[in-house]
Amino acid sequence: MHCPKCQREQEPSESCPYCGIVFAKFEEIQKRKQEALSAPPRSANEGTEDNTENLLKEAEGFFWRTAPMGVLAVLLGLFAFLMLWIAVHGVFSPDSILLALVHNVNLVFHEAGHMIFAIFGNDTLTILGGSLGQLLIPIIVAVAFFLRRDYPGFAFGVFWLFESLLDVALYMQDARELKLQLIGGLGMEAHDWRNLFNHWDLWRSDQLIVKIVRWVSWLGMLAICIDMARRVWKQRKENFI
Residues 180-208: pLDDT tens digits? Predict the structure, then answer.
C-alpha cells in the first residue's frame, strides 16, 4: 500500500512508519475538509452574530436566577403605572397618595444623607449629602440583589434609583421657583440646591443640568422597563414552546 501523505510504499498498517500519520485520522480530516468545502458559504457577520447571541444567552442564563414570569409581569406593570402617573401628575403631588408615599420614602433617606455626610465635616458635602443619600440607598439595594443574582430585586433597585434621581431633578428645578415646602418650614436659605448652585456659580447652567438629570432619569426607568418586558416576552415564548 501507499501512504496517502508521503506516497511511500509500505506494508499494510494503521500508521505510516515514514511520516507518522495515522491513516484513520488522516481520512477523517480529509473528510471534514471536503464537507467544509461543499457547505454553502456564510455571510461574514453570520457566524459572529450567532456566537455573540449564544454567548449572551449563556451568560444571562448562567448568572441570573430564574424569576417567575408572574413576578416580572407584576413589577413591570407597577413600574409602567408609576411612570404614567408621574408623567401625568409630576414626580411629587400632595394630592396623589402614591406619589406622596414614594416622595416621602425618598425624603427619609434624603434627610438621613445630610446626617451621614455631615460626619466628614464639610459643609458643601453635608448639603449635597441629602441628594446623595436618597440615591445611595437604591444603589445599595440594586447591588445587593445583583450579588444575589436576583433580577426582580435588581430591577426594583435600578428603577428606584432613577425615580429618586427624578425627585432630585425636581429639587434642582425648585432652586429657582422656591415652590416646595421645606421640612420645618425653613426658608430659601435652607434650600440644598439653591445653596449648591450659589456655591458652584451654576445659575447660567442650572436649567440645562435639570433637563439632563430629568432625561437620564426617564431613560433609565424606561430602559429597565424595556428589559423587563423583554424577559417577560422571552419567558412567555418559552412556556408556549
Answer: 888 877 788 889 999 999 999 999 999 99
Q: Can you give the residue range of the structural domain that contains 148?
A: 67-240
Q: Is 127 among the domain residues?
A: yes
Does residue 37 form part of some domain?
no
Sign of CA dihedral 212, 214, 215, 216: positive
For 141-187, what is the HEC assignment?
Answer: HHHHHHHCCCHHHHHHHHHHHHHHHHHHHHHHHHHHHCCCCCHHHCC
Report the C-alpha gap between 237 and 241 in whole angstroms: 6
88-95 long-range contacts (CB < 8 A, ≥24 apart) are 90/170, 91/163, 91/166, 91/167, 91/169, 91/170, 92/167, 92/170, 92/180
Per the CB < 8 A criterion, the answer to whether 73 and 232 are in contact is yes
Show the cell assigned to 130: 441629602
* Contacts of the segment 29-38: beta carbons below 8 A, 24+ positions apart: 30/4
Domain count, the chain: 1
State the Cα angle at 38 between 35 and 40, rounded to 5°: 115
DSSP 9: B
Residue 186 inside a domain? The answer is yes
Residue at 41 is within a domain: no
Q: Are 68 and 238 in contact (CB under 8 A)?
A: no
* 8 A C-beta contact, residue 79 and residue 221: yes
Entry pTM? 0.74
